[in-house]
């Protein structure tokens, strides 16, 4: 048995030595010259169309207003409007346009649009004031709700346990206590008591009420007060509708906004 083990060990040692010798021979063997890299054939010159400017082609470069008009023709697929006076920055890809310039570019008449400086100058809807005994002006409402100094900091001690039990955020729960004292805060997050908040697409009646309220009182801030004129809508819904629908539709001209060429309203202050 021991003899067999000794033979096996000797055979294993010889095999390992032979493998090591082959490896050394491979490393010492001279290498042939490197293979040349294959190069792809170049495209024929005719396949690469040369791009030249109008000056290189011997043509007169477009003036700024002509370039804008040419871009307008591509956008609306018809006769381009006259946009003399547009800046060169408006021609850059992705540049923001003033609202009037954008709607002129799109060939849309906005002469009947509401013009605003971004301020709502009204108060709570008279019908809501009467129904919920809200005083007719901010100072009287503040005093009727307890008065005191205004603070952006939420007084968590003023949040009733019933609102906490609903799992609301502190901001939403606290604003629910402000119907009389600070109706702008209340209606930004809540509809009038006993109303059901509407969700989803706006109906035509809501759309008309929005524009009429903007025309009568201005629009652009105090969204809670603004929303009190639109039953079943809250302030943050009105703010989003203003940015996403009303301004891009050309119904209100608010110079704090500009438009992208894709038709998106961007707040610039």
UniProtKB/TrEMBL annotation:
Coiled coil (UniProt feature): none
Disordered as annotated region, ranges: 13-62
Gene3D superfamilies cross-referenced by the UniProt entry: Homeodomain-like
Pfam families cross-referenced by the UniProt entry: Myb_DNA-binding
Segments forming domain Myb-like: 194-246
UniProt-listed PROSITE patterns: MYB_LIKE
Superkingdom field: Eukaryota
Biased composition, class Low complexity, residue ranges: 13-30
InterPro entries in the record: Homeodomain-like_sf (IPR009057), SANT/Myb (IPR001005)
Name of the protein: Transcription factor
Originating organism: Micractinium conductrix
